[in-house]
Structures are given as structure tokens and as C-alpha cells.
Amino acid sequence: MAKFDYDLFVIGAGSGGVSASRRAVAFGAKAMICEEFRVGGTCVIRGCVPKKLFTYAAHFAEDFEDAVGFGWQQAHPMFDWPTLIANKDAEIDRLNGIYIRMLNNAGVDLVEDRGVLVDPHTVEVGGKTITAETILVATGAAPFRPDIPGIEHTITSNEAFHLEEFPHRAIVVGGGYIAVEFAGIFNGLGSQVTQLYRGEQILRGFDDDVRAMLAEEIGKKGINLKVESQVERIDKVGQHLEVTLTSGETIAAELVMYATGRNPNTKGVGLEDVGVELDDKGAIKVDQFSQTNVPNIYAIGDVTNRMNLTPVAINEGRAFAETLYAKQPRSLDYTNVPHAVFSNPSVGVAGLSEARARQLYEAVDIYKSTFKPMKHTLTGRDERTLMKLIVDVASDRVVGVHMVGPDAAEIVQGMGIALVCGATKAQFDATIGIHPSAAEEFVTMREKFVELEAEAAE
Ligand code: NDP
């Protein structure tokens, strides 16, 4: 008789847990997975996917305006929030069903209930006790809100996907991915948006030119971005909310959304009881093979707070399964992971920011270009695109690619391949552009930005 019920028990059926369990079974393991909310996890159910659908919805506002310059008569279409919510919900239900079927077809046993570790090999789930040789924790993360007076009147991204009424005025607190994405969504769909950020510039950690460009562009689109703004309290006044800043200023809105980061879901999973070490942010500490200090317990995805991106969690899951069940040890390379912010305009990044590249390399060359997208020659829209390359002088390798503008994610994904391949600036230059496109700018930038500045100063 087998010593354990399963070879692998996965807690959490999000992107990471699902990919790990399916791979493990493909390599011959017997696996069970549990999920307390909905199979698909943050990305599919209340993150990337519904957010991207909202982003498309929001962009139509500009598309209708822009069409006029191309001869389309202004139609003044009306936006209907309940239709968007219903259609989005139907799509999420469809994807949820696909994820459940994928698990079934793969032969992974699914329990739709919360799993709690009772000892390093035992999980309590759905009123049963299941044992497994290996446990994988993939419980993700959840929105964090600071504890200030009136915080109970606010929502997070979780609730933003299910609002019954669309707000005329919205305040978004935070300056990271979720804050800029939702500020753009609310703005595009017709809210008057104020975005409050405590620091000097939004998107801390991104390239400074990208940050400045995005702040300028979202301002042009009507978002009232207030930096160095801290919220002191939030009061409900009649039908609306009043946000008081530490400066004493008050701002009214129907909706206040907090996007002030996410905390790893490590509470109530029994981790402390079985001795799994957490870091000071409550994330599970793991080595490069996603192994915790308890040898048979592993963790992947946002719960480890390494790089909180869906494709990274999926790859951590695959690497875990290959390491344990195909006996092909693999760990992830976290350098050059391309990423995007689905703000309006969008941001795409592969490799290093200029500031980081200057720390790592003795000398770097900067190439940058800002221009009006061709489409807007006829629309009259005052929107500009930024493209920037950072090159290590010693090796001529391109070590950073940045873009703010339409389709940045689509364009920079390909640039990510070039960076993984170690492409040099000479190879970028030797690549023929696709004309007319915005992307061709990445292979036609010839003039070093710093040199030009220096020459101008002479
Ligand atoms: P981020 O960590 O990106 O941003 C959090 C923001 O909240 C920062 O601007 C931070 O300011 C601010 N903040 C933190 N604490 C407070 C506080 N007490 N008071 C006021 N402001 C505060 O978190 P998000 O929630 O936006 O997103 C979480 C993660 O999810 C992202 O980091 C990313 O990894 C992932 N994600 C990826 C997306 C994508 O790939 N497109 C989309 C959405 C999320 P400061 O800068 O000063 O610390």
C-alpha cells in the first residue's frame, strides 16, 4: 500500500498551482489540488483577464472620438456598465469552466474547498484528511489596505469588478500597477478620476523617463494625478465619500478604490504550525527550486513574493514539476522578464531601467525617441509615444527596452526575446524596420541621447 494518498497536494488552483499539478501528473505523479474560491485564481477570476477586458472597454471612448478624423460621423454611443459586467462575468465563467475541465482531463483530483496543513504531509480539506508526499502552496496574495479611519468605506480591485453602479467621480489611491490601470479604466469609462500617490512619481521601480511620460500622458487624458498626497481619513457624507488628505484638502467622490499593494495569503493555511518560514512581509521563504525550509513543502507564485506576475508563477510551477517529477532540476531566471502595465497609454518593459543599468554597468548609452503616433496625425489627439533603449557600452548589448504608447505590451514582448538572446545594439540596427509602424523606431534609433545633450551644452 502507498505510504501517502497522493504524491502531490497543491493548495490553491490559480495559474501557478494549476500548471504545477498538470505538469506533475503528466510526469506520472498522482496529484490533488484544492481551491477555496474559484478555480483560475487571481489572474483569471479577478485580475489580469477581467482587467484587460475593462481596459478594452475603456479605450473605446477615445476610439469613437478618433474615428471622426477619419471621416466617421460622430455617433455619441452610450456606455452601459451592466452590459460590460454581464459580458465579462460570462467570459470569466467560461474560463473557470475551462480550467476545471483542464484539471479533470489531466487527471488531477480537484476539491473545491479550503486546504489547511495539519502536519508537513497532511492537509485538511472538505472535511477530510489527505496525505501527500509533497505539498505545494500556491495560495497567491490579496489586496492590502492601510488601517486609516474610514477605510471600510473603500473598495479594492476585488470589488471593482462587481460594482453595481458606475461612479461619476472616483478616487484611486496608490501609484503601482493596479492603481494606474484602474485610474485609466475609470477615466476611459467616464468617471472624473483623481489618483492619489504618496511618493514623488508613480510606478516606483520603473524607468524614470517612463514614469514621467506616463504621468504626463494620463494627465492629458483627464486624470487628476496628485503626487505626494497621503490620505488621513475617509468619511461618508450623504451619498458620497469625502477623502481628507494630510494637507487638509478634501476631495469628494462616489467611489474610493485602494490599490496599495497585495499581501501574500499565508494566514490560516497552517504554515506556522508545520514550521514553514515566512519573511518579514509574510511571504513564504523559498530557495531557487521553490523549496521551503520544510523539505517536502514547496511554494510558488505570489505567496512567495518573488516576481508577482502570472507567467512567472506558471513557469515556477512548471520548473517545480520538472525538478521533482521529471528529475530535470530547473530554476527560473528572473532577469529580462518582460512586463507591461495596461494603463492608457500602456507601458512595456524588458530588461533594466536606466538607473539600474547605471548601477550594474560602467558605461551605458541611452537612445530615446518621443513622437506622435501616425494615427493621431488625423485625429488631432495630443498623445505621444516614448521608446527607449539602454545599451551596455562594453558589450554593445541592449540591456533595457522601454515603451509608453499604444500596444506597448505587444511590441515589447518580441523585444524580450532579443534581450534573452543577448542581442547587441548593432544587431538591432541591422534589423530592417516594418514600415509604417511604431515598433520600427526600436531598430532605427541611431543617435545617443546623452551625446546629444552634451553637444547641446557645449
Ligand atoms: P504595487 O506594489 O505595484 O503598488 C502599490 C502602490 O501602493 C505603490 O504605489 C505604493 O507606494 C502604494 N502604497 C503602498 N502602501 C501604501 C500606503 N500605506 N499608503 C499609500 N500608498 C501606499 O501593488 P499593486 O497592488 O498595484 O499590484 C500588486 C502586484 O501585482 C504588482 O506589483 C505586480 O507585481 C502585480 N500586477 C501586475 C500587473 C501587470 O502585470 N500588468 C497588473 C496588476 C498587478 P510606494 O511606491 O511609495 O511604495
Task: Report what the structure shows.
The chain has 13 helices and 21 strands. With 458 residues, the chain is α/β, with parallel strands linked by helices. It folds into three domains: 6-141 and 263-325, FAD/NAD(P)-binding domain (3-Layer(bba) Sandwich); 151-260, FAD/NAD(P)-binding domain (3-Layer(bba) Sandwich); 339-457, Enolase-like, domain 1 (2-Layer Sandwich), CATH 3.30.390. Strands 1, 2, 3, 4, 5, 6 and 16 form a seven-stranded mixed beta sheet that branches.
Please, what is the CATH homologous superfamily of the largest domain?
A: FAD/NAD(P)-binding domain
C-alpha geometry: globular
| CATH topology tier name of the largest domain | FAD/NAD(P)-binding domain
Q: How many helices?
A: 13
Mean pLDDT: 96
CATH class of the largest domain: Alpha Beta
Q: How much helical structure, as a percent, in the residues?
A: 25-40%
What Rg is obtained from the alpha carbons, in whole angstroms? 24 Å
Estimated share of beta-strand residues: 15-25%
Helix/strand/pairing category:
alpha/beta
The N- to C-terminal Cα distance equals 82 Å
Could you outline the blueprint of secondary structure elements for this entry?
Blueprint: E1 6-11, H1 15-26, E2 31-34, H2 41-46, H3 48-67, H4 81-106, E3 109-111, E4 115-119, E5 122-125, E6 128-137, E7 141-143, H5 157-160, E8 169-173, H6 177-189, E9 192-196, H7 208-220, E10 224-226, E11 231-237, E12 240-245, E13 250-253, E14 255-258, E15 262-264, E16 297-299, H8 310-325, E17 339-341, E18 347-351, H9 354-360, E19 364-371, H10 376-379, E20 385-392, E21 398-404, H11 408-420, H12 425-430, H13 449-457
Parallel strand pairs: 1-2, 1-6, 2-3, 6-16, 8-9, 8-14, 9-10
Antiparallel strand pairs: 4-5, 5-6, 7-15, 11-12, 12-13, 17-18, 18-21, 19-20, 20-21
